[in-house]
Amino acid sequence: MFETLSDRLAGVFTGLRGKGRLSPADIDATAREIRIALLEADVALPVVRQFIAAIKERASGEELSQALNPAQQVIKIVNEELIAILGGETRRLEFAKTPPTVIMLAGLQGAGKTTLAGKLARWLKGQGHTPLLVAADLQRPNAVTQLQVVGEQAGVTVFAPDPGNTSGVEISGPGGDPVAVSRNGVAEAKAKLHDVVIVDTAGRLGVDADMMQQAASIRDAVDPDEILFVVDAMIGQDAVTTAEAFRDGVGFTGVVLTKLDGDARGGAALSVRQVTGAPIMFASTGEKLSDFDTFHPDRMAARILG
Ligand code: GDP
């Protein structure tokens, strides 16, 4: 995913190899090259600015100008600053003191929410939890069936609206009531002693007031312990604007980056932490339920720096 950035940064470091102490002009030139590398990888402009300011500050603080091996020192500084923009520490899920822990997923259609619901459920089950998946995406045709399929693959129960129910409360598909489904799903989890509930909500193709309203209503109905904003790392700068829209419209406690296996530049997704202030908690790297892991800022930085 981050080949462009890796290659560009590697080029900057190669240019510094064998150099003695760096002059202020060398430091400026290096900062400029790093800036271009970040911008070319689609890292959001405010994040790039902050990154470069930090590097220049550390350079003028003599950390760099006094270094005998500037290439190594620049790599060290870039590594530490990358870890910082990615959030520093790994942020783990917070479980409710009184179960069930309610995790709500939000994001655009196609971001990978339903797939993620299955991945998260499988992962939690592997840690001894007893998750319940709740199918509250009644917008996208097949979303309920798709959740049932991933639930089956994960070996996890799925709470879905009853398609035969014509009472107007829990109809599957558009016109059904996702808020009622979510509320009933949480009640079901309490009754059946599931310790975690994962609520899959509906997205739209783009940011949309109805979608935000619906997600906010679900949030208010289920009072989630975590709201995970799911974002496709391949959508470029839209990742940042979408994140801002969801932060303002629904709010979230964590971010999940999906499709990190893609070959797009991905830098925008790496900016989401810095722009929204919410930690990146998980990363999705494929269509299989096992293509999923906790997000570790230090490991991601190491990967980018090759
Ligand atoms: P939703 O509309 O947000 O529920 O998105 P889906 O879970 O249906 O995912 C949309 C498409 O992206 C599906 O074809 C998934 O198989 C695919 N997908 C989801 N996560 C990933 C991922 O991490 N990598 C890749 N390559 N594809 C993914």
Automatic annotation (TrEMBL):
- Start and end residues of each SRP54-type proteins GTP-binding domain: 279-292
The protein's annotated catalytic reaction(s) are:
GTP + H2O = GDP + phosphate + H(+)
The record's subcellular locations are: Cytoplasm
GO cellular component terms attached to this protein's record:
signal recognition particle
**Gene Ontology biological-process annotations:** SRP-dependent cotranslational protein targeting to membrane
- Which controlled-vocabulary keywords does the entry list? Cytoplasm, GTP-binding, Hydrolase, Nucleotide-binding, Ribonucleoprotein, RNA-binding, Signal recognition particle
**EC number annotated for this UniProt entry:** 3.6.5.4
Under Gene Ontology molecular function, one entry of this record is: GTP binding
Binding positions for GTP per the UniProt entry:
107-114, 200-204, 258-261
Q: What top-level class of enzyme does the UniProt entry assign?
A: hydrolase
Q: How does it assemble?
A: Part of the signal recognition particle protein translocation system, which is composed of SRP and FtsY.
Domain notes for this protein: Composed of three domains: the N-terminal N domain, which is responsible for interactions with the ribosome, the central G domain, which binds GTP, and the C-terminal M domain, which binds the RNA and the signal sequence of the RNC.
Q: Which family does it belong to?
A: Belongs to the GTP-binding SRP family. SRP54 subfamily.
Function (record text): Involved in targeting and insertion of nascent membrane proteins into the cytoplasmic membrane. Binds to the hydrophobic signal sequence of the ribosome-nascent chain (RNC) as it emerges from the ribosomes. The SRP-RNC complex is then targeted to the cytoplasmic membrane where it interacts with the SRP receptor FtsY.
- Write the protein's name: Signal recognition particle protein
Q: What is the lineage of its organism?
A: Bacteria, Bacillati, Actinomycetota, Actinomycetes, Nakamurellales
This chain is encoded by the gene named ffh
